[in-house]
Amino acid sequence: MKFNQPRKLDDIVQELCSSLGFEKAYQEHQAIKVWQDAVGDMIARQSRARYIKNSVLYVRVLNPAWRQELHFKKADIIVRINTSLGQDMVRDIVFQ
After folding, report:
1. Top CATH class, 9-95
2. What Pfam families is this protein classified in (predicted)?
3. In whole angstroms, what is the distance from residue 94 CA to residue 15 CA?
4. Residue 18: its pLDDT value, please?
5. Residue 38 — φ and ψ, nearest 5°?
6. Please, what sign has the CA dihedral across residues 50, 33, 52, 12?
7. How far does Cα 71 stand from its chain's mean position?
8. What residue ranges do the domains of the chain occupy?
9. How much is the pLDDT for 7?
10. Helices 74-85 and 23-33 sit at what angle, rounded to 10 degrees?
11. Could you identify which of 12, 47, 55, 62 might form a hypothetical disulfide with 91, taking C-beta atoms 3.0 to 4.6 angstroms apart as the criterion?
């Protein structure tokens, strides 16, 4: 009996989504998933990435002061997210 090498579940899901034509949806989900790593724990406690539409990431922010702070850091956050993804998935962020 021959066993295949173990694979990461994330790789298997990505391959499956690609074969089913859901690759873009999977990539968008990944952008939401890396939000916490891109902004750090303190900002992640005050905000939550919700969804992506037309390369715009929509983020819910708990209060106006944090919304303003994140607006000033927007360009840096976009670079961090896209770097984590290895591609330019996010072009803009809307803080709600």
Report:
1. alpha beta
2. DciA
3. 30
4. 62
5. -70, -35
6. negative
7. 17
8. 9-95
9. 73
10. 130
11. 55
Q: Which of 89, 62, 59 is nearest to 73 (CA)?
A: 59
Closest to 33 measured CA to CA, from 50, 11, 12, 14: 50
Going by C-alpha positions, the residue among 66, 61, 93, 94 that lies closest to residue 80 is 93
d(CA 43, CA 69): 10
Determine contact, residues 95/61, Cβ cutoff 8 Å.
yes
Three-class DSSP category at 36: helix
d(C-alpha 35, C-alpha 30), whole Å:
9
- Helix or strand run (H / E) with residue 56: strand 56-61
Closest CA relative to residue 23, chosen from 38, 32, 33, 13: 13
